[in-house]
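Sorry, I am new here, but would you mind making up a protein's amino acid sequence and the tokens describing how it folds?
***
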Amino acid sequence: MESREIGKTGEKIPVIGMGTWAIGNSSGDQRREEIKALQRGIELGLKFIDTAEVYGHGRSESLVGDAIRDRRDDVFLATKVAPENFAYDDVIKSCETSLQRLGVKFVDLYQLHWPNPRIRIQETMRAMQELVSTGKTRYVGVSNFSVEQTMQAQESLPRSELVSNQVRYSITSRSIESDLIPFCDRERITVIAYSPLDTGNIPASRIPRDMLSKYEMTPAQLMLNWVTYRDPVVAIPKAGKVAHVEENARSVDTRLTQSDYDELSRRFE
């Protein structure tokens, strides 16, 4: 699996990871399938797993914890704190609760899930810095932050580097291309693309058949290849089924040429 540096850390993560939104609310066979999918993904090199405290009201984190038990060292683990918990004490408490659900001593990446203008970013980032200092997270990231909000977050984190911004990005959702991607590229902040397959709404009929044949890819694989073509971007498609994880894992075995990337981009402008 191809990998890229996250932020300026010198540490590399796979360009295709695993997202867990809408995973964990299940029980019985479905829950076992979701755990199996995450474990299969780890085997295939998709060792970046992203979750959040709000996913399934914590049940997603619990499921991830079950999936990575005895495999913690193999995984780059990320979770997120909800904006209503951005006050200093609430950030600390949320992180500790997430660690308990995940069954780990620390996460690799702790992220602010959405901006919250009602709480000063300086207070929130002071708590994030404390979590780094105490070893409960290794890195700090944000999610759904604009360029200006990302800059403010970085300026409020003087002793650490902001390593990532997790945002919606797919071939059919490209609003970040004009400003956020160029900014993150310059600042060496990793863009983590969520919903890279547009929550399953894959526009297969608009993707050239000759391109699918040329690369021997499915429409989903070609979309993931396209999303992660640019250097600052990695993607976290949902990992709820083993078959989907196996399909995703093969999406960057071969890279699009520049001309094919440009052609695909033009078709979805």
Summary: The chain has a mean pLDDT of 96. The domain at 3-203+224-254 is CATH 3.20.20.100 (TIM Barrel). The CA atoms of residues 114 and 144 lie 5 Å apart.
